[in-house]
Design a protein that fits this description.
The protein is mainly alpha-helical and 246 residues long. It is 72% helix and 0% strand. The chain is built from 14 helices and no strands. The chain is globular, with a radius of gyration of 20 Å. The relative contact order is 0.05.
């Protein structure tokens, strides 16, 4: 896990869970490895097992909150975070996830306040800066949002979603050519993420490149996200196969 190889951590943690089935710590660690590996539903089950063994186990509650956030269940995330007691309740990751939950629930003023406080204490946390930028963008403070995204990318230039966020900002500013460049950067760092191809497809259409847009939608469909391609086909476009348009 410390070497950023969560997939390699899963098998030994599963074996450890077999050897010590009553350990909430092992189940929570397994949940974290599964979550970091993108196996969210399995992570939720592991965190659930940890909480059945120890209902107030902080790491499992934080992990479950992270699962709820990823699955767009912010109210449930806040409930899990509210159950964390003692010194763990003041941990920075608890405050950060609470702010993300508030943002997802539309409590933008509260989320901005919490994220600003967190970012002030953790100025090199790129994820927090990006999250603050998203809140600022939602509130219409686009210049401040851009500053946050620029700082996040300077700290972690390999994170695709940071470029996606900056692309969305440029799109709101109607700087479609700049947005197209940023969406392309997002694809470079996350070529297997179907949403990245859909985002660039829509920008290509906006910049008078429907053929390129159809090609990107085909790529997204090949990765399992076909809804937008089907909408275009229903509208009489992207009818003739890969990279085609009408």
């Amino acid at each position: 896990m410390q070497c950023m190889r969560p997939m390699d951590a899963v098998a030994p943690l599963e074996r450890a869970a077999e050897l010590a089935p009553s350990s909430p710590e092992i189940q929570a660690n397994l949940g974290t490895a599964l979550f970091e590996a993108g196996r969210t539903e399995q992570a939720e089950k592991a965190f659930g097992r940890a909480l059945r063994l120890s209902p107030s186990y902080p790491e499992a509650l934080m992990g479950m909150a992270a699962v709820h956030l990823r699955m767009n269940r912010p109210a449930e995330a806040l409930k899990a975070l509210s159950l964390i007691a003692g010194k763990e309740a003041s941990l920075p990751e608890v405050a950060y996830n609470r702010a993300l939950a508030m943002q997802k629930m539309g409590l933008l003023t509260d989320a901005e306040k919490a994220l600003r406080a967190y970012a002030a204490d953790h100025p090199t946390d790129a994820e927090a800066l990006s999250a603050l930028g998203v809140v600022m963008m939602q509130r219409g403070a686009l210049a401040n949002a851009k500053e946050c995204f620029d700082r996040a990318i300077a700290l972690r230039p390999d994170q695709a979603r940071f470029y996606y966020n900056r692309a969305e900002l440029e799109k709101r500013l109607t700087h479609f050519d700049k947005a197209l460049v940023e969406s392309g950067r997002a694809i470079v760092y996350a070529p297997d993420r179907a949403e990245a191809w859909v985002n660039r497809a829509e920008l290509r259409v906006l910049t008078d490149d429907p053929k390129g847009g159809c090609a990107d939608l085909d790529r997204a469909c090949g990765l399992g996200l076909c809804e937008r391609l089907e909408i275009y086909r229903d509208g009489g476009r992207c009818l003739s196969g890969f990279g085609s348009s009408r």
